[in-house]
Amino acid sequence: MLNVTSVNVNGLRAAAKKGFVEWLAGTEADVVCLQEVRAEPHQLPEEVRRPDGWYVTHAPAAAKGRAGVSLCTRREPDRVRVGFGSAEFDGSGRYVEADLPGVTVASLYLPSGEAGTERQDEKVRFMDEFLAHLKDLRERAAADGREVLVCGDWNIAHQQADLKNWRGNTKNSGFLPEERAWLSRVLDPADGGYVDVVRTLHPDTEGPYTWWSYRGRAFDNDSGWRIDYHVATPGLAGRAVKGLVERAATHAERWSDHAPVTVVYDL
């Protein structure tokens, strides 16, 4: 079995003080993908920078206090790569991948964007470059007899079932028609060629949501978004036997505004 968890920690130093360390010590995951770490390795406490029993790769952003992704694996990766060959984005702390036996696992933090601004233009540029990388990665992996799993905060709710208030967000970044169309391309067998693993496991479910605003009572009312995904090549996706969102029991027990998304693959 390969047990993989992905979570946007919304600042790893803050999460470590609110329960992340205890969660990591208790998880059964073989791989943990982190996003929005927002810290350089030397700024992290030792138990987070080098937790016992884990090999960790941190990919901080060049811009201080922004973005940042990490990969934690129980076994030492055969190869690690930071970035995907982008002159604009490889220093932005948004992508890291590792080769494990038979599978390449990546942690992704796609830009959030803001409709009608330069931030949205940046998001679109990232998406354009990243889709090309996904296709190339899939082809290279297939040639080597490997599968691919890209986990992370994709900052796009793909379908109406992926956010509670979809009617009120049709003009907001994260649910724009062009963003949803791009993700459809990623998941098109004739284009990107990947599979949304959790949606495949839960085809008729509202959600399960993975992010809830800290404002108001969004968490208590389960008024959330599903923007954190396991996106895999079909061979690996077909081996997924269980997928769940590790939603905190209460608002007070949350250590991030996102919840861990865990999938078990029967290899």
Automatic annotation (TrEMBL):
<keyword id="KW-0378">Hydrolase</keyword>
<dbReference type="GO" id="GO:0006281">
    <property type="term" value="P:DNA repair"/>
</dbReference>
<feature type="active site" description="Proton acceptor">
    <location>
        <position position="258"/>
    </location>
</feature>
<feature type="binding site">
    <location>
        <position position="257"/>
    </location>
    <ligand>
        <name>Mg(2+)</name>
    </ligand>
</feature>
<feature type="binding site">
    <location>
        <position position="8"/>
    </location>
    <ligand>
        <name>Mg(2+)</name>
    </ligand>
</feature>
<dbReference type="InterPro" id="IPR037493">
    <property type="entry name" value="ExoIII-like"/>
</dbReference>
<feature type="binding site">
    <location>
        <position position="258"/>
    </location>
    <ligand>
        <name>Mg(2+)</name>
    </ligand>
</feature>
<keyword id="KW-0479">Metal-binding</keyword>
<feature type="binding site">
    <location>
        <position position="153"/>
    </location>
    <ligand>
        <name>Mg(2+)</name>
    </ligand>
</feature>
<feature type="domain" description="Endonuclease/exonuclease/phosphatase">
    <location>
        <begin position="6"/>
        <end position="258"/>
    </location>
</feature>
<dbReference type="InterPro" id="IPR005135">
    <property type="entry name" value="Endo/exonuclease/phosphatase"/>
</dbReference>
<keyword id="KW-0460">Magnesium</keyword>
<dbReference type="GO" id="GO:0046872">
    <property type="term" value="F:metal ion binding"/>
</dbReference>
<dbReference type="InterPro" id="IPR004808">
    <property type="entry name" value="AP_endonuc_1"/>
</dbReference>
<feature type="site" description="Interaction with DNA substrate">
    <location>
        <position position="258"/>
    </location>
</feature>
<comment type="similarity">
    <text>Belongs to the DNA repair enzymes AP/ExoA family.</text>
</comment>
<dbReference type="GO" id="GO:0008311">
    <property type="term" value="F:double-stranded DNA 3'-5' DNA exonuclease activity"/>
</dbReference>
<protein>
    <submittedName>
        <fullName>Exodeoxyribonuclease III</fullName>
        <ecNumber>3.1.11.2</ecNumber>
    </submittedName>
</protein>
<feature type="active site">
    <location>
        <position position="109"/>
    </location>
</feature>
<dbReference type="Pfam" id="PF03372">
    <property type="entry name" value="Exo_endo_phos"/>
</dbReference>
<feature type="active site" description="Proton donor/acceptor">
    <location>
        <position position="153"/>
    </location>
</feature>
<feature type="site" description="Transition state stabilizer">
    <location>
        <position position="155"/>
    </location>
</feature>
<feature type="binding site">
    <location>
        <position position="155"/>
    </location>
    <ligand>
        <name>Mg(2+)</name>
    </ligand>
</feature>
<keyword id="KW-0464">Manganese</keyword>
<dbReference type="InterPro" id="IPR036691">
    <property type="entry name" value="Endo/exonu/phosph_ase_sf"/>
</dbReference>
<feature type="site" description="Important for catalytic activity">
    <location>
        <position position="228"/>
    </location>
</feature>
<feature type="binding site">
    <location>
        <position position="36"/>
    </location>
    <ligand>
        <name>Mg(2+)</name>
    </ligand>
</feature>
